[in-house]
## 1
Amino acid sequence: KRRERNITSLLRERLPQRHVNLLEQAGALGDTLGVPVYAVGGFVRDLLLGRTNLDLDIVVESDGIAFARELARALKGRVRAHTKFKTAVVIFSNESGEEERIDVATARLEYYEYPAALPTVELSSIKMDLFRRDFTINAQAVQLNKGHFGRLIDFFGAQRDMKDKVLRVLHSLSFVEDPTRILRAIRFEKRFDFQIGQQTTRLIKNALQLELIEKLSGRRIFHELEAVLKETNPLNCLHRMDELDVLRRISPHLRITPTKNQVLEELENVIKWYRLLYLDDSPEPWMLYLLGLLMGCAYPEVKEVARRLSLSRRQEEDLQDVRELSHKCLGLLQQWVAGERTMSGLYCILSPMRTEGLLYLMARTKTDDIRRHISYYLTHLRKISLDIGGDDLRNMGADPSPVYARVLSRVLGAKLDGNVPTRKEQLEFAFSILAEETAKAHDQHRHRGRA
Ligand code: CTP
């Protein structure tokens, strides 16, 4: 017989007090309404694995939307309900004024349609709710009602799997029901340093044989791929995807060659370095890794992959632009390191490039010197701005025109090269350029008059 485990002390140890309060509040509300309430899914899994996860998912064995409305009232928040799915999100502000959300779902027996191949058994509704989930570790619940607070519910052997570090599905049709779970399996395996179980591996291989990946929509694949690439070490996942033949089934162009692998490894280092420096401007992981995965591909092949992943026109253009530009940039950078190496020259080469492209360049170049200079551009040069602006040019009597941009860009170049560090010097330089431009314009006017 199953030994029951209560994880109240774990909850109290690991969670911030306000979250414990929140759980208790939800449980108390369940008591008032006379319904069983549970925290479920990734929240429970991460709690047991000692990882921070404050995304609370609640399941109630009754009308989830009605429960959510009551909870929102208690928390002075609001509810967004999805009647069709009988789910709701409670949105409220915590004491620090930050917005928080709690997902609430309904567990109901009649709600699930089960593949005919599965034996029909009587299940409680929470058991049914957990049974339709992907892996045992994600199919645990903690009861929140007062008398049972902290009661861990594990119908499918998640405790043992966590101890053995094994990722297992709950039944043999799991990947047929939802093939994106193949990618989720890989993601969780690498994130938690688990092993996909033997039987589960076989089921993945069967699903692949049935070409279920090929049948997935581009949107869904892209969504899962994005999630993979947002992991801390996406490359591990990509390797595993390649090993299991998942990458080829998404598109043969995505297969990892030794050359790509080298760049991908560098890319991962560069991304980690960049994230340590800048928490605010976060480059798009999907674009970075796609750049690496598509190295050596031609334009139409990239187009094919973009179509397979249903990239938006904008995303595809950005990707193609960065690829083309990075090619040009590398050539120009090679000339630059061999020449006078002015900072204005470096700025001129790199400023048209978006962050993803710059990081990709850093990963691709074999020259340390070039890598160092791109890093200098990212950390210093890029942030330098002028101490003068259009208003100053107007005050000099120049009418707003495209000349403004030309003048300011030359002054910026001079500042980058250290020639006009102060505002006063920049004003003087701008004035001299304006005078030059005016003289030139007059000249042209005279010539044209004569002709
Ligand atoms: N789930 C599932 N099958 C899927 C997606 C989700 O069974 N294809 C279930 C799992 O039980 C999962 C829950 O829905 O725990 C929530 O999924 P998700 O929002 O992806 O969250 P997490 O499991 O917490 O994953 P992550 O830590 O990456 O957010």
Note: The beta strands are 5-6, 37-40, 56-60, 78-82, 87-93, 99-106, 141-143, 151-153, 166-167, 195-196.
## 2
Amino acid sequence: NDERKGSKRCAVIGGSGFLGRHLVEKLLDRGYSVSLFDIRQSYELPGVTFHQGDLCDKQALLSALKDVSLVFHCASPAPSSDDRLLFERVNIQGTQTVIQACLDAGVQKLVLTSSASVVFEGTDVKNGKEDLPYAKKPIDYYTQTKIEQEKLVLEACNKPKGFLTVAIRPHGIFGPRDPQLVPTLVDAARRGKMKFIIGDGTNLVDFTYVENVVHGHILAAEHLRADSPICGKPYHITNDEPIRF
Ligand code: NAD
């Protein structure tokens, strides 16, 4: 039961990253204590215990998951690395290791940060719902492994075993400390590379404010119960209308 297992103790795998740190800060605000697992440490905060390790290493994970009932998995190699073997090792095999470590440690809930690109076939999607099929031709290796990762996590949902899972699918995340999206755009503009339009200028792209992504993760975690319809399901998360780009 949640009380006995300490329902206010959770783990954030990838908690040193852009999204992970925002998630950790919000969880602390909400009275959680956080076990942070990452290959690198980027900050320190009261209420956070840092565990350095690679998520492909089950023993290292197990020490971070001790007495934890809820796990957020928001670690991934950077999409820009385009390193197929690294994506496969971390996003596919590593996620299998995360699931196994959760089961061994008696974790009850796992919330995965997936990506909206898992349903993107290269053509505009407007008002896309979660019943869209996975992309048959994913746009890159990163997306291909995000699809496999999401399937693994959602298929691991097992009510009789008391292990519940859910996935949140954001697209381009922006907000304070964003290391990628806005800095890349600003850099391209500075170098005079924003003078070209790919397509006819009406392409759609979706951006989500980091606090909304965090909110979606915490709502999912707090509503994940055996009698909830969200068990084993993915959810797109966005601000509102897609922005014309
Ligand atoms: P980020 O690079 O800032 O954070 C990822 C974190 O994962 C880093 O701290 C990194 O050290 C850690 N990590 C990488 N490999 C690891 C390993 N083997 N073991 C342990 N930790 C490891 O990235 P982010 O933008 O915060 O992305 C977080 C999640 O959100 C990822 O799963 C990403 O696929 C997903 N996502 C991000 C965006 C976006 O626009 N940023 C959009 C859609 C989905």
Note: Residues 1-6 have pLDDT under 50 and may be disordered.
## 3
Amino acid sequence: AFAMQAPPAKDVTVHLFEWKWTDIQNECAFLESKGYGAIQVSPPNEHAVINTNTEQYPWWQRYQPVSYELGRSRSGTLGEFQQMVTTCWQDHGVKVYVDAIINHMAGDSGIGSNGTPFGNLNYRLFDDSDGAVVFSQNDFHPWCEINWNQPFVSADEIQNCWIAEGGLPDLATENEDVRGKIIRYFNSLIDMGVAGFRIDAAKHVKASELDSIYSGMHDLRSEANWFSANQRPVVYQEVIGGGPNEAVGIDEFMFTVKGKRMQVTEFSYGKRIGEKFRDDGNGTLADYLLYDFPIGSAGWGLVDSAYAVVFTDNHDNQRGHGNGYWTSTDNNSIGGIVTNYYDGGVYNLANVFMLAWPYGSPKVMSSYDWPRNVIEYNENGQLKRKDINDWMGPPANDGATQDVACGNGWVCEHQWHAIAGMVGFNNYSQDAWNIGHSWHNDGNQIAFARQTDTGESRAFVVINREGSALNQTFSTGLPEGNYCDVTQGSYDFVGQSCTGASVSVDGSGLAAFNVPPMTASAIHVGAPIGSL
Ligand code: LM2
Ligand code: CA
């Protein structure tokens, strides 16, 4: 037996989609207790406010920036934002990552969420006394719409034309002056204590221009109670697709800036998880072990793990946006081949796998509930499906977001027992990047350990995505002891106690598991009952 060790780098992020700053601040104690490392928050800058007959305050209004002011977004005020960032990091060691929209600005004209008027390609970016920092006509590419219905779309079209059906004014990021204003926005956030960014629509900006923007970012705050000196911001860039036959390749965005890796969102991972966990007739879970997921002979085609941010689903593809697509007429397949909370227990297991498997930096999705309503229609003789409620925003009164209430309009997947419990599993497996003691039934039951280079086991998981119980003794390689089953019970890292079932490992590393249908069981060296 060896002594329990402090968890290594906390690499799990949770996306608290559309949460208000005050609610996030309140959530940070829970996030800390489970070992979450960071939160991705919704765009904090001023955004369009959209209210039409058919779409009242859609979630996507926040993907239309009106200014770079943080005064009042749908999630709250500047003061609340600063309080959240400070409290989450200083009191709970949880970082804040901001979803940053820098490829484009809001379409049409109107008044932003903080009262700033915009229109005719004029945007007043900061509330300076002279109001001089603006984007105006010359700061945008001339209008053109990306046509995805051609065999090959050029890089020029992808990066210089306007996205979202040509509705979003595309910034001329080749101009240093434009980049300078974007850098100022980033630095205003970094100087408040923000530790990282999701770069929205990164594929639509030239990688070299992004490189120069990232190089202009400040180091993280390093005064007392903040981060250690010379730390660079975390950056993960939203790139959908970008395979070898495309003009803009995902690998263009995988580079380092001042020694820090700039990561990318690996959308194919979510598809590979979704198709198997949902049992879409595309192989079984055993394939992960049989074909050496993600690098082996099955041609999984995923990017280098060190650059990958992975997720079962995100705010776009869980509702059919962002290349989410549909595969069957079954309502359950909505959200594309990816899985989302509508899949219930299947979704739970998919997340257990993501948090157990050694690939990428995991991001857990935390959604609000919306009444999915899928219709079928014909487009040029092709059967298509669409969720006509895909625009619906979070629980709100006249566009003012309500407080979070988990289970009541807010799904809070990140609190689901198995998902929350597996965060610790991920943390304690960071130094154990190998798979060992693996087993599968050639179907949808798998088990494996996470091992160090010297063959020590840190953690062991059993996933049973079948209709019958899995009662079996496995060789886990773990030190002798009693462990909390972190998928069933809640582990108290401070008191070293567990509210649920436990698993005992004997002196030769053997453990008997009883895993009911459609559940998992997982143990790790960070969650022993008493000392090991
Ligand atoms: C993203 N990544 O590249 C975001 O993850 C995604 O959520 C954003 O689209 C998109 N890029 C732009 O930031 C969402 C949403 C779109 C929506 C846009 C802008 O998926 O449907 O487009 O935000 O709010 C909407 C309308 C669209 C209209 C457009 C401009 O749905 O019909 O196009 O606004 O008015 C004319
Ligand atoms: Ca662009």
Note: The mean pLDDT is 94.
## 4
Amino acid sequence: MNRLTLTQLRKLKTQGEKITCLTVYDASFAALLDQAGIEILLVGDSLGMVIQGHETTLPVTVEHMIYHCQQVYRGSRNALLIVDMPFMSYATPDLALHSAARLLQEGQAQVVKLEGGNWLVETVRLLTERGIPVCAHLGLTPQSIHRLGGYRVQGRTESEANNLRHDALALQSAGAALLVLECVPGNLAAEITQSLDIPVIGIGAGSACDAQVLVLYDMLGITPGKRPSFSKDFLPETGSIITAIEAFIKAVKTGLFPGPEHTF
Ligand code: KIV
Ligand code: NA
């Protein structure tokens, strides 16, 4: 297997080289992204919105994630493959172990991603001990949209920021291999990134994170409706899908994306 490993990713963090990640849901885009040199492919449950047309990610099932993960796996050879665990597929540690095993065995993912803080410590430890690497996800966690009450920046108050700092360290201690920070103020994301040994992947979290991820359809300007303010459509200035992807990679590697206009 020639895919990028978590060890290699951690080395990139140590060396201070920025890491690129995009979401992807099918073999053709996976091949394009992989050949362009994207380090991480994320089969995100955002597919519930951008592929399936739902209003939230909640209707997505483990079967859906396996189906799309298989496609992305077949289309790519080099990138690290992360798959989202869908809503309620990790509600208990045992359920999480069962769902995650399917995503690795049937979907061929290397890493599973799950959304949430302190309550997931036991689950992250269990999966990690059983040989399943976990990417944690803090800040705006779209599977909790009904509890959060809207797609808003998280960690603005001091008590919210303290919870985020604490959860990030607790998840790393439990064995998390990676952390996604979504929609948190840039200075808080910078502080958390520095406090952790594991690579931090930001989306709407400023330029200090070790890696950047965007929803593929946002960065190609084909998501229906309004594009999130932290995202950028790379297509108009480049003119083709492949050059847009190359422009994203270059902008992340040189620290030009995200700029202040994409940061909270
Ligand atoms: O589902 C998704 O696309 C994600 C990323 C935006 C981090 O979780
Ligand atoms: Na997701």
Note: The CA atoms of residues 35 and 233 lie 20 Å apart.
